[in-house]
Specification:
With 227 residues, this protein is of the alpha/beta class. The chain is built from nine helices and eight strands. Strands 1, 2, 5, 6, 7 and 8 form a six-stranded parallel beta sheet that branches.
């Protein structure tokens, strides 16, 4: 089974992070339902000093082959929708694990436009891989939502639209799951800056994806955090 992580800054991580990708790789490595492979065209972390994805400084030993992803600091649905088709064709993932939307709503598109980009993303992915499975994570509002009511409302509206897109776009040959938002996710405890996950947040994001796959598809096992 080949997995591709797709996301924004919360997924790529920056120098010194473990990343939820690392936590998910740990989880998959501990499952006994067959071999797995992490695929994708990128592997680096974001470096704030360089303002670019040039770092290999993960917080824990992470095999180079397992670092692969399609994620970018400041990139959202609007950026990755045009890329997913060629990436899926070249790297042949079986499952996409997607965490996107916050950066779109914060800087680029409203909830309706972002939902349109979700549809474009799914269409592009399926054109390259008709039997591709996908797990999509709803937007987790960050610290900005506390004082910016219109932004908070857009996050809420988008999550409603995302659920509708998942229901409309899922097919028997290419199912789409909407992961449940992590339980008791607290930005003061589970992030290091009000947006990006720290270790506890990384585990909760990985658990959201793992639980969705296990419950719906019998893929993997229950998520058990590892050090």
């Amino acid at each position: 089974m080949r997995f591709l992580f797709v996301g924004d800054s919360m997924t790529i991580g920056r120098a010194g992070d473990f990343t939820w990708r690392y936590r998910m790789w740990q989880h998959l490595s501990g499952c006994d339902d067959g071999p797995h492979e992490i695929v994708g065209p990128r592997s680096l972390l974001y470096d704030a000093e360089a303002d670019a994805a040039v770092s290999t400084a993960y917080a824990a030993p992470f095999p180079p082959a397992a670092r692969r992803h399609l994620a970018g600091w400041g990139e959202g649905w609007v950026h990755l929708a045009p890329l997913i088709g060629p990436v899926a064709k070249e790297h042949r993932p079986d499952v996409l694990l997607v965490s996107l939307g916050l950066i779109d709503l914060g800087f680029y598109t409203n909830s309706a436009q972002t939902a349109d980009n979700v549809r474009a993303f799914v269409t592009g992915a399926r054109a390259a891989a008709p039997r591709l499975r996908m797990v999509l994570l709803p937007v987790i509002p960050n610290v900005r939502a506390r004082g910016d009511a219109p932004f908070a409302a857009e996050c809420e509206h988008f999550n409603v639209r995302l659920a509708k897109e998942v229901a409309d776009l899922g097919t028997p040959s290419s199912p789409i799951l909407l992961a449940s938002p992590p339980k008791e996710y607290a930005i003061d405890r589970d992030t290091y800056d009000g947006t990006h996950p720290g270790p506890s947040g990384e585990h909760k994001l990985a658990a959201a994806f793992a639980t969705a796959m296990h419950q719906a598809w019998g893929l993997g096992g229950p998520y058990r955090p590892r050090p």
